[in-house]
Amino acid sequence: MAAILLAEDEPVLRMLVMDSLEDEGYEIEVACDGEEAFERIQEREFDLIILDYMMPKMTGIEVIERTRELENRKHTKILMLSAKSQQTEQDKVLQAGADDFMSKPFSPLDLIAKVGDMLDG
């Protein structure tokens, strides 16, 4: 079973994503802000990290940059979720070290497919 860290500050979206992925058999650990996400990343290895772009205490970009500085987390898969869907924002996310980007709003089925592709690839 793949272990996924979900960092999302919006409670309703956090529950939707968590429930959708747990229904697919994934083990989900949750963080409610960027600082908490980075603490969990340092404590445990995840198969995939799903980050919200705009979070309190530390943005998703900051979490990505700090995660990529950790020697043992350089190759952890990272998916960024964001309502900022402009190409410049997507480029910024990918340059920071994310593996993929998904614009909000999104369908839970699309998210499940994206997660499956990222974990299989």
UniProtKB/TrEMBL annotation:
Superkingdom per UniProt: Bacteria
InterPro entries: Bact_response_regulator (IPR050595), CheY-like_superfamily (IPR011006), Sig_transdc_resp-reg_receiver (IPR001789)
GO molecular function: DNA binding
Pfam families given in the database record: Response_reg (PF00072)
UniProtKB keywords: DNA-binding, Phosphoprotein, Transcription, Transcription regulation, Two-component regulatory system
Modification sites for 4-aspartylphosphate: 52
GO biological process: phosphorelay signal transduction system
Domain Response regulatory residue range list: 3-119
Listed name of the protein: Response regulator
